[in-house]
Each structure stands twice: as C-alpha cells, then as structure tokens.
Amino acid sequence: MSGSWVLVDIGSTFTKVTAVDIGQRRILAQSSAPTTIEDVSIGLRNALQGLGLDAEQLRQARKLACSSAAGGLRMVAIGLVQDLTAKAARLAALGAGARVLSTYSFQLTEADREEIIELQPDIILLAGGTDGGNRENILHNAKVLASLPNPVPVVIAGNRSVAQEVAACFPPEFSTYIAPNVMPQIGQLQVDPAREVIRRVFMEKIIYAKGLDKAGRWIEGIFMPTPAAVLRAGQLLSQGTAARKGWGDLLIVDVGGATTDVHSLGKGLPTRAGVVVRGLPEPYAKRTVEGDLGVRVSVLSLMETVGPDVLAQEVNWTREEVESRAELLHAHPDTLPESDEEWHFDRVLARLAVAHAVSRHVGRLSELYTPAGLVWVQEGKDLSSVATVIGTGGVLVRSHDPLAVLEGAGKQGDAPLELRPEDPLFFLDGSYILASMGLLAQEEPDAAFDILTDSLSNYKLARREQ
C-alpha cells in the first residue's frame, strides 16, 4: 500500500470512496454507502469498510475528501451592476463549487435583506465597484448585511480602495475575508483569487457549521465542495501538467437528480472571422448550474421547461403517462427504472436536461446591422471547436446508452446560432472518479492525470454509424 491514497466524495445521497496507488497509477478499489446526514462519519466508515482494506492499510493511506452533503455550499452573490460586478461575483461563487441561491445588484433593499435572512446562505460574496471606482454602493450593502440577525462569513471582493472600510462595517461575530476584486477594471475578470478564499472559508467554517467535521477521525479533512473538485479535474485534464500534455478545450456535463451542472475549460474566443465579442469576458474555467433541469427532484420543472407534450412525443407515451411518471420520480427520487420503457424515459429526460443545460452555458451569435453592414456578435463562450465532452452523474453512469444522452450536448439543428461543440469525442466518467482526481490533483497532479486519462479512455463512447 505504499503510495496509496483514499479519495472521498461525501454526497447528499451516497458517500463514494476510491483507493488509488499513485506509484502504479491505478485504482485499487472503490466503494460507496448511503450518506448519513445526521452523522456523516457513519456513512463514511461504512464506505471505507467496503474497500476491503485492513485497518493498517487504511491507517497508512492519505485520506482526502470533498463534499456536497447537507445542501452543499450555499451562497448569495452581491455586486453593483447586474451584467458586470454582480455577474463576476456569481461566476466566482459558481467556480468555487457553490450553489448560488440568489444574485443581487445595486443597493440592497429591506426586501432583499429579508430574502437573504430566509435563504440562510453559508457564505456571502460581496463585490461592487472597480478598484478606485464606486464606493457608496458596497458600503451601503455592507451596512445592510451587518444588520443580519445571524452572522454569516462574508468574502469581500470589490473595490480595493474601500475593502478595509467595508470589513469594519461588520460586528466582531461576523467573519470577514478580503479577496482581490473580482472586476478590478471594467471588462477585466479576476475570479480565481476569490474562488480560493471561498474554498478556504469552506474548510475553516462551513464544514463545522454543517457537522461535517465529525468525519475528522476517518479522514484528514474536507478540502473543497464536490463541484469545485470536478472543475479542478477538468482543469487538470484540459491543461495537463509540466510533464503531461493536456487534452485541450473540453466540456463536462454532470446530470443529477436536482441539477445539471456544466463545466467548460477553454477561452471560448471566436472561431469565425469577423465576429465581434460583446459582454463580460468569460472565465477559462466556467461552471453553470441549472436547478430546474434535474431528472428526479427537479423533474417536474424539467418537464415544464421541455413541455409535457414534447416529452410525450419523444418517449411515445401519452401526456398522462408522462406526467404520472414524472410525479412518481419527483416524490420518490430514489426510484430506478425497471422496464425498457422506463429506461428509455430516463434516457430521454437526461438527454433533454443535457441539451437545455448546454444551451444555457454556451455562447451564441446574433446579427447586428451597422452603417458598415452586417456584423456577427458573439455573447458568451464559443465552444464549437471543443473536441472532448465528458459525462458524469448517476443517470449517465447507469444508462444503457450514455452516448444517446451526451449527444444532447452537441450541435442541434434547431439552434444553429448556439456555439455548441460541433464534432466532439464523447467520454463517460464510468468509474466516477472526476471529483476524486480533482482532490488528488492538489498534491499529485501527474498521478491524477494518468489515472483519470486511463479511466476515461476505457469509457470512450463509440459513435453510431451514420
């Protein structure tokens, strides 16, 4: 067991563990057990025992964890202008692996304050103003937040000229952290430093607030939210290491019961000549979360988004049968398909969730008529040349035809102006190790890269004959 690591993902439903040997660059064993929210150490212990390692082997192994249990990392993001600093704050929070409950812009009102109290976020990200720019807005918002009845950790990532003054607005019982401005200048995005501060706050404060520290006797610590670990694995795979060549631009789609997350790694600059980019610059590592596109808890909103008649036509059921099945899945999210028809229903649900989530994530082109003639305008990331699409999530891993699901990420005939991947290769995270390798990449990037690429290569999805 020399050089062995045990990587743990404490999910809201299952706790998954993967043991790897970094010297041999291989997976030794995997196991999972139901997460016990009242005391996560119980589910973790059960999952560790499932690995089949003896007590001494477990003791010697390095053990790291990520978690999305107990609601994950819940945040609100606050900025000045909706399409600028507020959007930058939201991007920073999402990239840190958070579930963004709401985004606020301009000056917080009493109604906003009451809503934040009701939302009960784990962390507040307070931005606003470029460096040396507007001061009044972020100071006003700090004073509103300082009056919240229950103290919340606040990450201040706005106008640096007033950051210390903003921090001084909060009573001592509030924990405040100052990060570099998420938008130091108009049109300049700087979200990575704030992401790192959010991760530190998660480690220092949130795992204790949620009772996740009870797992401490079994592992060294919970180091990041699970979505942040997945994004870190995507960065590793895309960019490689000093000794490993990366795969280049890629897309990761994570289909879950409550949300469908999309991660893109790439600059997203125009691939066509004569295209003008408009809007806020996009981060290289971008994550979006669609809370209405899950295939279990959020299946009713997914059906509403797609349209029950469209869904009925896709699965060749009646509208009443579709609505009845969706109600059942919503009420009993642990339901697994049994018949071929039910497997087909799940597959169609997942493909539609992928198609709509990727549509919201990618950029798009529009026509703009100017005195000089027609100009193409790009908003968002151009992912049309992305060569790799990776699928993860239980519904994909269990699917009888994961390729049919993932093809929803590709070019759609009814949306020619969406900048989706046009001719990618598809891979499945069939060993469920993206989050684990994101954790391992923090300390052993070469080993994580080798294990991840080997696993994905074993789950390369063959294209159908045209």
What key attributes describe this structure?
466 residues; alpha/beta; Nucleotidyltransferase, domain 5; Rossmann fold; 3 domains; 5-stranded parallel beta sheet; 16 helices; 22% strand; globular
Structure, explained:
- It is globular and about 60 Å long.
- The chain has 3 domains: 4-70 and 213-220, Nucleotidyltransferase, domain 5, CATH 3.30.420; 73-205, Response regulator (Rossmann fold, 3-Layer(aba) Sandwich), CATH 3.40.50; 233-458.
- Helix content is 36%, strand content 22%.
- The N and C termini lie far apart (47 Å).
- α10 packs across α11 (319-331).
- The protein has a 5-stranded mixed beta sheet. Strands 6-5-7-8-9 form a 5-stranded parallel beta sheet, sandwiched between helices. A 5-stranded mixed beta sheet has the order 14-12-11-17-18, with helices on both faces.
- The chain is built from 16 helices and 18 strands.
- The chain has helices at 40-49, 55-60, 85-95, 110-119, 136-146, 163-168, 192-209, 226-239, 299-306, 308-315, 319-331, 340-361, 394-398, 402-406, 434-440, 445-458, and strands at 4-10, 14-21, 26-34, 62-67, 73-78, 98-104, 123-126, 154-156, 176-178, 222-225, 250-255, 260-265, 275-278, 285-290, 364-370, 373-379, 388-392, 425-428.
- It has 466 residues and is an alpha/beta fold.
